[in-house]
Amino acid sequence: MGLFGLFNREKKESLDKGLEKTRESFFSKITKTFIGKSTIDDEVLDNLEEVLVTSDVGVETTLKIVKRIQDRVARDKYAGTSELNRFLKEEIIDLMAENKTADVKDFNHLENLPAKPYVIMVVGVNGVGKTTTIGKLAYQFKKAGKKVMLGAADTFRAAAVDQLTIWANRVDVPIVSQGMGADPASVAFDTVSSAVAQGVDVCIIDTAGRLHNKVHLMNELSKIHKVMQKVIPDAPHEILLVLDASTGQNAIEQARQFIAATEVNALALTKLDGTAKGGVVIGISDQFKIPVKYIGVGEKMEDLQLFDRTEFVSSLFNEN
Length: 320
Description:
The protein is an alpha/beta fold. It has helices spanning about 10-20, 20-35, 40-55, 60-75, 85-100, 130-145, 160-170, 185-195, 215-230, 250-260, 280-290, 310-315; strands at about 120-125, 150-155, 175, 200-205, 240-245, 265-270, 290-295, 305.
């Protein structure tokens, strides 16, 4: 069984509850596209385009989805508005599949982690839920029987170090910290070195979240890379970008800047339970071709879920 296992009933209920605001907003808008219509004509497609854009799917991704539905309707001349939900669901799932957003069964399971220690470097701006995501991720790994270590390399803010320390104590995992103002690369080096020496399975390193100077950010992350590779040549194995789904299109801009600064290869979308902007998950997946690996759908430890595109879209369309 993998890190998060298959979606059991409890996790499915958590996902449904977490997407409640997005689902209610989405379906309220979709219903209006059907009023007085029995067939999927140009007016329905125009209305659908507006719904997707205002649901934070993004203009570029919206145009792709509408074009796919338009082509599908052209192939099936008898398609009616009653089938639009099914078409939309299937096309979104297919689009996310093409964009490397894998289902839960496609991710490496715990027993198949490609390295020991498996080093995860976490990036993202302040306030997106980065520290909370690290804590919940550490909890999930530990719950699965793995030895976990945290590294507090976000030394720009004292609060960042303190918050991560609180999470380390809460989850009961060791943390490497040098305090505010320390060299982030030095913290990362010590963390990875300690992880190797202590036989740690998973090493999760926090980094600074400021974007005011992209060149500085790029240089800092590059330096962290290089010092970790002195200990483990292929570290970090995963660069996880944490984004706040409630910021909608701002999350897409943040993704663009971090992807330009470092080799992000996994995404986590937080705070889906507190927003009606869950459609941004679809847009981010499409625009950057980087897999959405985790989603946060609540405050409990278990509410950080391994992303499953089919379950996500089914929940969005209220299918149980």
